[in-house]
Amino acid sequence: MSQSVYQIVLGMTRQETLELYDRIKSLNIDQLRAVVVRELAHNSYDEDISLGASCGCTMLQGEPSSSWDSLLGALRGYIRKAVGRTPEEVEVICKLTIKSRSNAIKDILRKSPSTTNCVIDILSLVVPIIVEQYAGIPEMAVVGTVVILFKQGIQTYLDE
Fold it and tell me: Phi first, then psi: what are they for 61, rounded to 5°?
């Protein structure tokens, strides 16, 4: 699944995160790693940028074309920074985000009556942050990496 320009601008919803999680929740760690590697290898961002450019032209009617060209160039550069990330880099990004949201995650773990709800709540908390901050990393790669961290024991990554 590629990340569209619209998701970069609008962010991910809880429902989108849940749909991705539902597709991979039964996989073991090795299978999840294979999904992450496959997603990171897939690159259709230029297509997404072109689609965004064609749609964005109508959004910027009345603006000089140089304004749109500058915005498109900046967006393309921003996305390319995230393209080519390794699974290890995505794992570090996920761990850092989990640590930065440590208190909220601890509250979820305390309050959540079931593991499934807990996973969904934490995914809904951290995945949109990562997808927004690191535009260009496929959502499924982020969800898969966070689920791997869960299966390894997410408490390990929380600040004490």
Answer: -60, 140
